[in-house]
Amino acid sequence: VQLQASGGGLVQAGGSLRLSCAASGTSFSIFRIGWYRQAPGKQRELVAFIGSGGNIIYADFVKGRFTISRDNAKNTAFLQMNSLKPEDTAVYYCNTDYRRINNLWGKGTQVTVSS
C-alpha cells in the first residue's frame, strides 16, 4: 500500500486543519496507520497511531487537540488538528509500520501555524 498525505496549509494559531491520508492498493484496513511530523532542523516524530481495530495512541503534545480516525471503506485516514500552535509547524506524513521501518516515505503535507 502507498500513502499520500494532503490537507496542509497556513493557519493562524488557535485554528484548525484536517489532514487526509489516501491509500492506494489493497488491504488498507489491516494496517496500523501513523501520522508523523518533521519540523525544520528536527527529527521526524510520531503524532498518533490508529490500529486496524481502531485502537489509538497519541503523542503527549497533541492529546486533547488532535484526533486521528480512519475510514476503511474509503482507504483513508484523517488527522483533525484543533487549537494549533506555532510549534505544530512541520511537514506531516502518514505511513504504515512496514514502510516506516524500511524508510519509505511519501512527500508529506506542509502545515504552517502563524502566531
Using the alpha-carbon principal axes, give the shape: globular
Outline the biggest β-sheet. Answer: 6 strands, mixed
Low-confidence parts lasting 5 or more residues at pLDDT below 50?
none
Q: Estimate percent helicity.
A: under 10%
Order of helices and strands: EEEEEEEEEHE
Number of helices: 1
- Strand order within the widest sheet? 2-10-9-4-5-6
Amino-to-carboxy terminus distance: 37 Å
Bin the strand percentage.
over 45%
Structural Rg: 13 Å
Q: Structural class of the helix and strand makeup? A: mainly beta
Condensed summary:
The chain is mainly β and 115 residues long.
Explain what you see:
With about 120 residues, the chain is mostly beta strands. Helices cover about 5% and strands about 50% of the residues. It has one helix spanning about 95-100; strands spanning about 1-5, 10, 15-25, 35-40, 45-50, 55-60, 65-70, 75-80, 90-95, 110-115. Strands 2-10-9-4-5-6 form a 6-stranded mixed beta sheet. Strands 1-3-8-7 form a 4-stranded antiparallel beta sheet, with no helix packed on it.
Topology at a glance:
Layout: E1 2-6, E2 9-12, E3 17-24, E4 33-38, E5 45-50, E6 56-58, E7 66-71, E8 76-81, E9 90-96, H1 97-101, E10 109-114
Parallel strand pairs: 2-10
Antiparallel strand pairs: 1-3, 3-8, 4-5, 4-9, 5-6, 7-8, 9-10
